[in-house]
Amino acid sequence: MKMPISEIIDRFTITKLKSERTDENVSDELEVYQKEIINYKVDLEDFIARMYTINGKIWDTEGDIRKGTDLPLDEIGRLALQVRDLNCIRNSIKAEIVDKFSEGFKEIRVNYKKINYGRK
Question: Contact 83/61 with Cβ under 8 angstroms?
Fold first, then answer.
């Protein structure tokens, strides 16, 4: 199954961040994603820039959670909620790409109430 362009852009920007922020060699992976992006023969720079920015914010916020082993629980909770909100923005960008290119699937998150299933 071919990977939709929304996923390619998302993975490309995450891999680009990884190449810039870690010592991991991801040049082969970056090259594969770049070739796929070039194959679309349309300007994807706006989507790439927006996805790169939001994935960078998610990376930073998740990093704050990982670094903050001594953070109070309310601060960890605040950061976790921030990641959730950033992911909503990320999913909306991906949904725009799905709409524009009519390929792939939109992520649908449904709020649900956790059921106790008889446990006290």
Answer: yes
